[in-house]
Amino acid sequence: MKVKVQKLDGKAAGDVELNDAVFGVEPRADILHRVVTWQLENRRGTARPTRERSDVARTGKKFGRQKGSGGARHGDRGAPIFIGGGKAHGARKRDFDPSLNKKIRALGLRMALSSKAKDGLVVVDSLDLKDAKTKAVAETFGKNGWSGKVLVIDGDAVNEGFRKAAGNLKGVNVLPAVGANVYDILKHDTLVLTKDAVEKLEARFNG
What we know:
Elements: E1 2-6, E2 12-17, H1 20-23, H2 29-43, H3 102-118, E3 121-124, H4 134-144, E4 150-154, H5 160-167, E5 172-176, H6 182-187, E6 190-194, H7 195-206
Parallel strand pairs: 1-3, 3-6, 4-5, 4-6
Antiparallel strand pairs: 1-2
Helix pairs in contact: 2-3, 4-5
């Protein structure tokens, strides 16, 4: 698949041949759904559980008489009504640790890239801006027609000035190629890849 390459100022910068094994895969909704669900569940933190009656380190020895005290009958200091006792109906541990085959994860990423290659993929030569300020980046994006949610993927090292400037724009995110994932790719309207990022992504699957 051949795609036109452009500079950040919108001028043409030749063509690039995309690997069909990475950017030409027919997307499947079930695979994409499985990978996105797996990624979102991995982002969820484990809920901290409270200690219930059976979890607290208190004595189980009967501490008072059965009769004659004028109080209720108790035989365990771990009961919820006592200070230091367990919490009644407390939060339970919810551990989100799903598993997904590595081949399915890789296939999902290739399908996400392929879906953007059909519609919404832009390849630029680099992210070099003489003035990496928010205003300059906003003008560049507007000139190129990149509106809505835009995801920019650079090589291994993202230019820090460009990342900070683009991060001030609404709906714009910048990631390194090693951080490319299905959820972020699909939720953005436009995917902007540098030539370096294209090489890194293709090498990721060929290696």
